[in-house]
Amino acid sequence: MFRRKLSALDYHNPAGFNCRDETEFRNFIVWLEDQKIRHYKIEDRGNLRNIHSEDWPKSLEKYMKDVNCPFKIQERQETVDWLLGLAVRLEYGDNADKYKDSTPDGAKNADNTAKNAEPLINLDVNNPDFKAGVMALANLLQIQRHDDYLVMLKAIRILVQERLTQDAIAKASQSKEGLPVALEKHILGFDTGDAVVNEAAQILRLLHIEELRELQTKINEAIVAVQAIIADPKTDHRLGKVGR
């Protein structure tokens, strides 16, 4: 499951690593922090290095929080995969010039038709790496968990398309200039007996209408997002398959 990332990081036993073995797992965390991540100063790694301590799980939990790992200590496979991903990113950052021109052998010989293939068709939804990646994104974007990882992936795609594309960010960043409103054209419907109070009531009423419109827009967006997820005729969630 972790062989490729472990090999990329020059781990001594990438093929035989077993994260369920407690001693091996603890030694692996220490190696990862000492050799690759290096989030703590050397003098601050004592608690993490003391793998025989009864308080070591608390030290690990603090370490995961300090590096912003989105998983819980009980989710061991997901945690290992996330930490490996962090280590690979840091390793690349330290050696960017070495890797920037590298091209995988498989990529050189790949068939051109594979480049145009529908990515979701070729996904192995039962792959632990795939599940860990989707779960990490869902936690990062605060998307509700779902038993079907494809459903979560589609929800992530919709959120990214609607909120995080360059056009969406630019549009959200634009300042909205209000248009002048002629209050005398808007009937209040009652009279307080004070012209100033009447005008203030008219303004409050217009602001309330604007808030209702914004709320309705958000409701419509939520409905569209849900329909986009559950109304896809190519997805049969009962069978756990994609495609006809």
Automatic annotation (TrEMBL):
Instruction: Tell me the InterPro entries matching this sequence.
Output: RTRAF
Q: What domain of life does the UniProt record list for this protein's source?
A: Eukaryota
Question: One Pfam family of this protein, by short name?
Answer: RLL
* Family to which this protein belongs: Belongs to the RTRAF family.
Annotated protein name in UniProt:
RNA transcription, translation and transport factor protein
Organism in which the protein naturally occurs: Erithacus rubecula (European robin)
Query: Upper lineage ranks?
Result: Eukaryota, Metazoa, Chordata, Craniata, Vertebrata
Gene giving rise to this polypeptide: Rtraf
